[in-house]
Sequence to fold (776 residues):
Amino acid sequence: MKKEKPKYRQIIDAAIIVIAENGYHQSQVSKIAKQAGVADGTIYLYFKNKEDILISVFDEKMEMFADRLKEIIEEPITASEKLFKMVENHFTVLSADRHLATVTQLELRQSNLALRLRINAVLKNYLVLLDTILKDGIANGEFDKDMDIRLARQMVFGTIDETTTTWVMNEYKYDLVALSPKVHQLLFNAIKAE
Amino acid sequence: MKKEKPKYRQIIDAAIIVIAENGYHQSQVSKIAKQAGVADGTIYLYFKNKEDILISVFDEKMEMFADRLKEIIEEPITASEKLFKMVENHFTVLSADRHLATVTQLELRQSNLALRLRINAVLKNYLVLLDTILKDGIANGEFDKDMDIRLARQMVFGTIDETTTTWVMNEYKYDLVALSPKVHQLLFNAIKAE
Amino acid sequence: MKKEKPKYRQIIDAAIIVIAENGYHQSQVSKIAKQAGVADGTIYLYFKNKEDILISVFDEKMEMFADRLKEIIEEPITASEKLFKMVENHFTVLSADRHLATVTQLELRQSNLALRLRINAVLKNYLVLLDTILKDGIANGEFDKDMDIRLARQMVFGTIDETTTTWVMNEYKYDLVALSPKVHQLLFNAIKAE
Amino acid sequence: MKKEKPKYRQIIDAAIIVIAENGYHQSQVSKIAKQAGVADGTIYLYFKNKEDILISVFDEKMEMFADRLKEIIEEPITASEKLFKMVENHFTVLSADRHLATVTQLELRQSNLALRLRINAVLKNYLVLLDTILKDGIANGEFDKDMDIRLARQMVFGTIDETTTTWVMNEYKYDLVALSPKVHQLLFNAIKAE
DNA sequence: TATGAATGAGATTTCATTCAT
DNA sequence: AATGAATGAAATCTCATTCAT
Fold:
């Protein structure tokens, strides 16, 4: 399987670095190839086209979030605690890799609509897991049984996303992870059972 | 003042239509000119360059939101009601002009970073007004006096934005304005005083 | 006659200043109009097109050289003295008006071929007068009767022109007029009778 | 070294032909590419931009003149003979390649000032060699020891250049090389020792 | 005469992708 | 598998000129 070949990851990692450092529109295929230490043409042995590289970047990294979230869901803790861990995990991963944060929050959003729709599909898995937390919370009486799950999901994700983007735009100058408790508190207030 | 010249608005309006219908990257200046019924060169009598058209689109339209929000703030109603009206107004304006909604939620975000930073500056005015609502609510005891205003603002804006974007991506197939009460309820829960 | 109208000269003079200060390719019609204190459209009441302005600039100024040269020819002095006065006059006029010098030696040469051919036609009058000096000198035994007048003319003009251009390119940093005796000496040596 | 790649020369040669036949301002990159039998984009693998092609044309060809002149300087002949051979060589090379003559005498002069200054730098090498001939002539008593070398150089170059330009403007309708003895005679008269 | 807003043709350059080696 | 030279389509912006007032 191509994803296991070393050059596949080499190119993905190169893409993140190049995009973070040069911006989306200044990240030519040839630059990514150079950073990856391969020839331009080699890129096309592992990726269908440029868009495919970018989708794969998102794919691979989102998988990380989702995998971690899956573990969280299965832990024997309250839904509220799961929600907290989700927020904290999200912030922790992006704080630890600012290249990745810049790429996902700023640069990749400059891509064309087709790519963004494709990215949204990848995101969906993540959001489905979030739904699971919400449903669990409702089921065990922690969250408001009358809330609109779809809206709650959009609120949770919108808040996390906006908070992260603001942090990136402010050039990481404060501690994002430290905001987790307050963000969780706001979100929990919004959806907790009376 | 250039903004009063009819061709200025003509071009702004044409830009919104063309971008909504063709997407950001397929909106050549010549297409906008044709839609506006002017020659390509005429665009450059009113705008410095293509980017300037897009900034102006955002400028002009965001002004609408901000103006309406200013009126809301001054009304003799509770902060919670103001928050509701803000959400409702936001949803109403974008529901009424789907071209505009598509452009602001999807297409304009594909612009380069420089433009996006410029857009953020425009947004700031809007967010400052939102802060005013939050501060008023704290002052009169409606909202939690211990909340972090910056985070609350990011939550409110993030939620509204995410909700709108999801609606646009779902091709407007449900009634966005009808979601206002529930969205407001979530947001209010999050920040209300105990 | 249009040439006598004040705006005609106004535009010619504006053109020289604008071209000298901005260079040929940065001398748009609108800039010349502004410098002349007239509307863009007004230019076209006095000149057929942009090229016509430039030809007229050359025409008008070359006339000055030719008029002075005619006077010189008619003076009761030797051909060698006439040659000297011609060189000196050429250098004096251009030293006195550096804008004009820059325009004729550098900027106007960037014009298209058609304009340059037209300019050459204007130059012809000047060169015909030079021929007269040469013929007079041969007739009265001062100059070599076997010389090729056409080549001698090209040498005289080529030398004057090259000397002036070098002086302009060296940013007028030495006294051009002071070179007249030496230049004359070289030219006279070349063509004097044995 | 890029100069050895066949496409580099191919493009240079194509540029000379296209510019000579179409004129400077009608020599689009695409025309040059077509003449060279390469794609437009290929041009940019060998040249930084359009101006770089023109500089290179001049560079390459001027080298020819300079190389030949170096050989002449080293021959065991009189300075006067060297001067003659220089004139003759100049005329011979340009007579043999009328495209090149048209380009150097007419078309390249329409380029912008920046390019012309760059071209002058290339010319300097040629003029330095000319200076060597003049100094040699003075040293061995052939040329007037009191002459101003800079002016003499400007005369020699100005004369050669003007003679060549006139010949090109007259559409090569006489034999340029045949003028060499007379041109040399004039120049030699000008500077020979008493 | 004079104005100046409007016109619209036209060219350089970039860069994702291909394919012969 | 890997290379990298070559391709060629595509779009912004300028500015000489016009013409309705």
User: Anything to note?
Assistant: Chains B and D do not touch (no CB pair under 8 Å). The two ends of chain B are 51 Å apart (CA to CA). The mean pLDDT of chain B is 91. Chain B has two domains: 1-47, 50-191.
